[in-house]
Specification:
Strands 1, 2, 3, 4, 5, 6, 7, 8, 9 and 10 form a ten-stranded mixed β-sheet that branches. The longest helix is centred in the last third of the chain and has 12 residues, at about 165-175. It contains five helices and ten strands; from the N terminus they run E-E-E-E-H-E-E-E-E-H-E-H-E-H-H. It has one domain (about 20-160): VC0467-like (3-Layer(aba) Sandwich), CATH 3.40.1740.10. A hairpin with a 2-residue loop joins strand 7 (about 95-100) and strand 8. The two termini are about 20 Å apart. It is of the alpha+beta class and about 190 residues long.
Length: about 190
């Protein structure tokens, strides 16, 4: 566990916050991941997207959207045949504001049109197959076990951080005791 139960963090989860996995999280779906929380209600569950797991194909290869040629990411292990988007497009029809100029969802027909107009870029949108989900109070239990650190940082520029660096970058932003974990080796026995 991250701090052997020593973590006195605020356990309140809100849309737009980040969940940063502890270095030894046993679940391979969330090993060294950063999850953007998009929706949270303790009694109904939590919906989020893993921000740093490229899928090694683009949206056009996986969907019918001809004009969306952007990389696809694995949003999580739930319903991997669904498509989700986070973006910095406040005028996208149906988008839900998260925080710091970052939005979730919207009409994909509008996104397709924006792609055709060449108005989509890696700096303003990211697409995901699947999502991360927790049942009622499940995430709270994982937070109490210190499986996750809640990062309340500016999420507006997350799309500009290289996905392979995002986990360590976010821990460094938290500073203090978390900064040390940013450089922690994947396998401490190999250190």
């Amino acid at each position: 566990m991250l701090l052997d139960g020593d973590l006195n963090q605020d356990l309140s989860v809100t849309p737009g916050c980040l969940l940063v996995s502890e270095p030894f999280l046993a679940d391979p779906n969330f090993d060294r991941t950063v999850v953007l929380v998009c929706q949270h209600q303790n009694d109904q569950g939590t919906f989020g997207l893993v921000l740093n797991r490229p899928a090694n194909l683009n949206v056009h290869e996986a969907t019918q959207f001809e004009y969306i040629q952007h990389p696809l990411y694995v949003g999580g292990p739930v319903e991997e045949d669904t498509l989700h988007v986070i973006h910095r497009l406040p005028d996208l029809e149906g988008a839900i504001a998260l925080k710091d100029g970052l939005y979730w969802g919207g009409k994909f027909e509008h996104l397709e049109w924006l792609g055709q107009q060449q108005k989509l870029s890696a700096a303003n949108c990211r697409f995901f197959a699947g999502y991360s989900g927790w049942g009622p109070r499940q995430l709270l239990g994982e937070l109490k076990q210190n499986a996750w650190v809640i990062a309340r940082v500016d999420v507006g520029d997350l799309l500009r951080v290289e996905p392979s660096q995002l986990w360590a970058h976010t821990l460094r932003l938290l500073g203090g005791k978390f900064r040390a974990f940013a450089n922690f080796p994947q396998d401490p026995r190999m250190n």
